[in-house]
Amino acid sequence: MKPAHIAETEDCRQISQMLSRVGDKWSMLVVTYLGEEGMRFSELRRGIGNISQKMLTTSLRNLERDGFVKRTVLPTSPPRVDYELTDLGRELLVPVAGLADWTRENVHRIETARKEYDLLHKP
Fold this sequence. Notes:
Blueprint: H1 4-23, H2 25-34, E1 39-40, H3 41-48, H4 53-65, E2 69-74, E3 80-85, H5 87-120
Antiparallel strand pairs: 1-3, 2-3
C-alpha cells in the first residue's frame, strides 16, 4: 500500500493532466461543437473558426486518445471521416456547461477583482 502523500501526489498529477486536456481552448470548443451531433473535420473547422488544420487535428487526436471522441472512417470515395462524442465525452459536457454557467454568472466579479489587483500592482 502506498503512503497517503504519494497517492495524493499521483491523484494531483492525474487531475492536473486531465484539466490541462479538457481545459485548453480548442478541446473545449471541439467538445462543445460535437455536443449537438457528429461532424466532419471541415464542418468542425468552419464552425470553430480561427483554428488551424494542425491544431484541430492535434485536438481531435488527443480527445480521441483520452476517450472523449470517436473517429469513424466511412468507405466512400474519397473516404469520409466523421467525429462524434463518446459517452465519456457527453458526460464531460455536464461539468463544462456548469463551468460555463458559473463563468457567465461571475465574470463581472472576476473583472472587478482584476482591475483592483492591477491598480494595486502597477509597474
